[in-house]
Amino acid sequence: xxxxxxxxxxxxxxxxxxxxxxxxxxxxxxxxxxxxxxxxxxxxxxxxxxxxxxxxxxxxxxxxxxxxxxxxxxxxxxxxxxxxxxxxxxxxxxxxxxxxxxxxxxxxxxxxxxxxxxxxxxxxxxxxxxxxxxxxxxxxxxxxxxxxxxxxxxxxxxxxxxxxxxxxxxxxxxxxxxxxxxxxxxxxxxxxxxxxxxxxxxxxxxxxxxxxxxxxxxxxxxxxxxxxxxxxxxxxxxxxxxxxxxxxxxxxxxxxxxxxxxxxxxxxxxxxxxxxxxxxxxxxxxxxxxxxxxxxxxxxxxxxxxxxxxxxxxxxxxxxxxxxxxxxxxxxxxxxxxxxxxxxxxxxxxxxxxxxxxxxxxxxxxxxxxxxxxxxxxxxxxxx
Length: 384
Ligand code: SF4
Prior knowledge:
Layout: E1 2-3, H1 39-50, E2 54-59, H2 64-67, E3 72-74, H3 76-84, E4 91-95, H4 98-107, E5 113-115, H5 124-127, H6 131-143, E6 150-155, H7 160-168, E7 172-174, H8 179-189, E8 192-196, H9 199-208, E9 217-220, H10 231-236, E10 239-242, H11 254-263, E11 268-271, H12 277-282, E12 285-286, H13 289-298, E13 304-308, H14 311-320, E14 325-328, H15 344-355, E15 362-363, H16 367-381
Parallel strand pairs: 1-15, 2-3, 2-4, 4-5, 6-7, 6-8, 8-10, 9-10, 11-12, 11-13, 13-14
Antiparallel strand pairs: 5-15
The chain binds iron/sulfur cluster.
GO cellular component, one term: cytosol
Binding site for [4Fe-4S] cluster: 123, 246, 336
Pfam families: NadA
């Protein structure tokens, strides 16, 4: 089964179903039962049978049962680069979410097929900015007479359509590690930035690293006429933030920070920049997933860390560093539900299908979209 890029509208819970956005609800082939005690052995055997034909990528937020079969782990951009560096592997099984598999397809060679074990593994943040909505936004910026001053910047966590839009309009992709460098470059080119789709990463980078004020930022809401902004607000703003957020990192609150500081004396609070502004300003350190991992690796034995990022990663860090007191920042459980759709049964189904010569759940970005998305990705790689 091959998918192409398209709009992925979010449905309100309980408001019906949309087969166009809920891809993968029907699993091709027979999904093994989660209770099958032979799953680990089946995955091992299928992977061994495939040998160098398959390269398995595992995002940091994946479950342990899946991560154990990853040839490499990392954040989305590192994984896409790793896949591109292995052109000898015709099949890349991406244990992550849809936009990550799209980026891998864009960056890998034409003969490589990128497979997402469950097509329902999307990203609620990426789905908050659809192509039509962003085109409408650009019309609003044109009507306000500011579009020529605006450089679009999109976070890696966006669909290929949005990356291509940004490439067509002279912009750049960024990650949570290089967002400041991307904004430095964008402000050297234009007077304003349209930051997609994560308002928190955009605001936190602009205010905490670029010296902009909160008043320099406005939030464009795709569900309101004119984005909910007046033309004058758009003319005055330096940073136009898309109203999108990560449903995992958006959960952490100032109360979580205050509560853990009271409960654990001397605790260091370490959060991802996708968290809300009041959370990152109350934290001790802010950084990408890779930064969080390196910080915990380098931490003093006996030190205490409350971490504001996805729970699978925090638990893995806690298990890997029993000499340090590593805990989850929030009191309630907080997995990324779409990431968690990739489980051992889906991985077994993908690997066994490949071993039989059946290629299922291929993510393939159309050529034109891939071309312009690559323009924006290449611009990121060329950032000074
Ligand atoms: S953690 Fe957030 S940004 Fe990452 S895939 Fe899940 S919803 Fe998307």
